[in-house]
Amino acid sequence: LLTETIRRFDDRQDPPLKLSTNGVTTIEKDSKGLLWIGTFGGGLEIIDTNLKEPEVATSRLGFKLPPEPIILDIEIDIYGQIWIGTLSSGLVRLNADYAGYQVFDQPNSSIHTQTPWVLKFRDGGDLYIGSPDSGIAYIKQDYLLNDMPQFETPEIFESFDNKNIYSLEIAGSNLWVTHDSGLTAINIFRC
To answer: What pTM, to 2 d.p., does this model score?
Structure first.
């Protein structure tokens, strides 16, 4: 009975339940019923939940995925684009049709980190990005579709005393930030 109730996906299973690694770091569901799984060491995995029995469908779907092996966070914007925070390859944007992706890193964009490890959308709009080395930045909703979106760091974020960001949450008008020095609430409507 337990095996009929619980389905385990890991690297010890046979296909279609086999993941590339057991180090699952994040999960996000898109509008097409696909679960995007970030792993520590196995990159992106995709589970198709549209089937009677959900299965790992990464190979079957054949999407062009970034080669980064360590995925820290995944968020999906209102346009269906998938934003991927990585350990060392910057921020990745997977096109809504899954036919390609762009990498935004320090050499090729205005992002200030190679490690955007926490992502959070405000009501599906602006994308906030936290990192362990450069604090917080964001992309305005109007620029999410641009070939080269502008990463902004308002003065209030620049003056933030701790650049090692662990997580972000938005509640009301505040961006809640966890970091080495505790918890901070920033009124993002006054920035």
So the answer is: 0.92
